[in-house]
């Protein structure tokens, strides 16, 4: 199908599906040295931290709720109250700041200079640029997290190989990504906001994510729904459709998505995957 970049340029990009494994990917996405301009909208909340508009204010509220949930998830699945954590694609630094306050030794990586500067100014965090990932020592982290980041990474196989190398043998890898087999993805089709072309290069179904982990020496031990994402994504999707009563229609669709994911986790708007090394 063909999707539109609603955030920055209005350009169209095709999404293709592999006939063999079902993997969805954005075809002919911009090269790594050219894609920066697609992130330059002041509305791109992961980098700008904007409070503009009701949808973004809801995003901030949900993020505060999710920080505590993420910390509990990590404690439960790692078995650790404190440890060494690496957060990749950390955005404006809210998550590493929260985990640092919980007593974790935290390293973080972020591509956007704007987001790194925000994290430094507001939280005193020294965030590393992406090229430092390859410099991390073998088996040096108890936990590695990528919250809505894996779908942005051009060098996908190389990244998975590095993650396996730098994670401790008893460590956990936590990956959260949008789910193209979700209730809201099927409802909105090419208008589904979480396709977010061309910033999202890859679109991982639960089956494909499990295959990727296995390919690179990981076992999927748990996957957990992120049902609140359906509300934010649905409101954005209604906005892209130029619907009247965007907020109300988005809330209604999000509620449908919530109940759908409670019945079947594979229909959640986004999913958190917890991996261990083989």
TrEMBL record:
GO terms for molecular function: methyltransferase activity. SUPFAM superfamilies: S-adenosyl-L-methionine-dependent methyltransferases (SSF53335). InterPro entries: SAM-dependent_MTases_sf (IPR029063). It holds the Pfam family Methyltransf_23. Its EC number is 2.1.1.-. One of its GO terms (biological process) is methylation. Keywords: Methyltransferase, Transferase. It is an enzyme of class 2 (transferase). CDD domains: AdoMet_MTases. This is Class I SAM-dependent methyltransferase. It comes from Bacteroides gallinaceum.
């Amino acid at each position: 199908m063909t999707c539109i970049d609603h955030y920055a340029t209005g350009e169209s990009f095709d999404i293709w599906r592999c006939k063999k494994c079902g993997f969805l990917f954005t075809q002919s996405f911009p090269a790594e040295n050219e894609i920066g301009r697609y992130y330059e909208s002041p509305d791109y909340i992961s980098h700008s931290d904007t409070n503009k508009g009701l949808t973004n204010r809801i995003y901030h509220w949900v993020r505060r709720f999710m920080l505590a949930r993420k910390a509990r998830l990590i404690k439960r699945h790692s078995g650790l109250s404190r440890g060494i954590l690496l957060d990749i694609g950390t955005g404006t630094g809210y998550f590493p700041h929260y985990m640092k306050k919980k007593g974790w030794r935290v390293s973080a990586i972020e591509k956007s200079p704007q987001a790194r500067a925000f994290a430094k100014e507001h939280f005193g965090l020294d965030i590393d640029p992406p090229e430092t990932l390859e410099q991390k020592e073998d088996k040096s982290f108890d936990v590695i997290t990528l919250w809505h980041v894996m779908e942005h990474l051009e060098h996908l196989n190389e990244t998975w190989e590095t993650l396996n190398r730098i994670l401790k043998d008893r460590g956990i890898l936590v990956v959260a990504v949008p789910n193209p087999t979700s209730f809201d993805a099927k409802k909105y089709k090419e208008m589904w906001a979480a396709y977010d072309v061309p910033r999202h290069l890859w679109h991982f179904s639960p089956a494909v994510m499990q295959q990727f982990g296995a390919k690179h020496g990981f076992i999927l031990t748990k996957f957990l729904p992120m049902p609140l994402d359906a509300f934010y994504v649905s409101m954005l999707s209604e906005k892209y459709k130029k619907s009247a009563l965007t907020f109300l229609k988005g809330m209604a669709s999000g509620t449908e998505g919530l109940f759908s994911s409670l019945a079947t986790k594979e229909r959640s708007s986004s999913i958190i995957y917890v991996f261990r090394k083989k």
